[in-house]
Amino acid sequence: MSRIALVLLGILLLGGCSASIDGSSYTSQTPALSLEQFFDGKVKAWGIVQNRSGDVVQRFTVDIQGRMDGDTLILDETFHYEVGDGPDKRVWRITPTGNGEYDGAAGDILGTAKGVSYGNAFNFRYEMDLPVDDTTYQVAFDDWFWAFEDGTLMNRSYVKKFGLVMAEVTIFMQQQP
């Protein structure tokens, strides 16, 4: 009996290490977020990646050039690293599928990314092979975006392995003239 209690306690404690956000709480918040409008043009982003201990392991900027190709939003991203390293480029193709849902694809993303719009917020979930030092890990991204006034967006990503948050990414984005 005590083993069962210990296992249940361990599951509860591990569950506390995982992020879970209820997107429906953002449906009536403003300003409304339209990916197609926000990313149509130039966007500058500033971000950090923190490991499980909270240490900053990457600090970077991203130049994003967005455009619409029919119904598909194309995001051409170029990364510059001040701390750490990572991909130099990524090109997203994001297409609405109806009812506030989106499919996304990029060269280093495994399968199809799934997105859901929640008024002021947007959630994007996908998997990728993430190189770290001499090893590559298959991880899941739980990516959240929130709109602010004045053409600003905040992005918070939870990088998970086995359902546990292994790293967190924080990015601020601003539309450029």
TrEMBL record:
**Keyword hit for Signal:** yes
Name the InterPro entries for this protein. Answer: DUF3833 (IPR024409)
Instruction: Point out the signal peptide segment.
Output: 1-19
Q: Which PROSITE patterns match?
A: PROKAR_LIPOPROTEIN
Q: Which domain of life is it from?
A: Bacteria
**Keyword list, A-Z:** Signal
What protein is this chain from?
DUF3833 domain-containing protein
